[in-house]
Amino acid sequence: MKTIKVLGTGCATCKQLETLVRKAVEETGMEAAIEKVEDMQDIVSYNVMSTPALVVDEEVRISGRLPSIDEIKEAIAR
């Protein structure tokens, strides 16, 4: 099972990313634990300076923008 984290302080774009990630996981049928990380110290611990960010199995895959759902599917499948 993959661990997917959505890093963001609660802005609208961060919430959109969380929604898209949940949809991507559902559409792919992948088993994944999805966590929303809003604590600034936790976000900075990933060396992410711009949110939203997508972390898969503790690796930052996308940061600073809202990706398409196809891009999210590709990022979580790696």
User: Main β-sheet: number of strands, strand sense, barrel status?
Assistant: 4 strands, mixed
- In percent, how much strand structure appears in the residues? 25-35%
Radius of gyration: 11 Å
The spatial strand order of the largest sheet comes to 2-1-3-4
> What global shape is seen?
globular
Number of helices: 3
In oligomeric terms, what are we looking at? single chain
Q: What low-confidence regions span 5 or more consecutive residues with pLDDT below 50?
A: none
Average predicted confidence as pLDDT: 96
- Structural class of the secondary structure composition? alpha+beta
Residues in helices, as a percent range: 25-40%
Give structural notes.
The protein is of the alpha+beta class and 78 residues long. Helix content is 40%, strand content 27%. It has three helices and four strands. Strands 2-1-3-4 form a four-stranded mixed sheet. Helix 1 packs across helix 3. The radius of gyration is 11 Å and the shape is globular. It starts with a strand and ends with a helix.
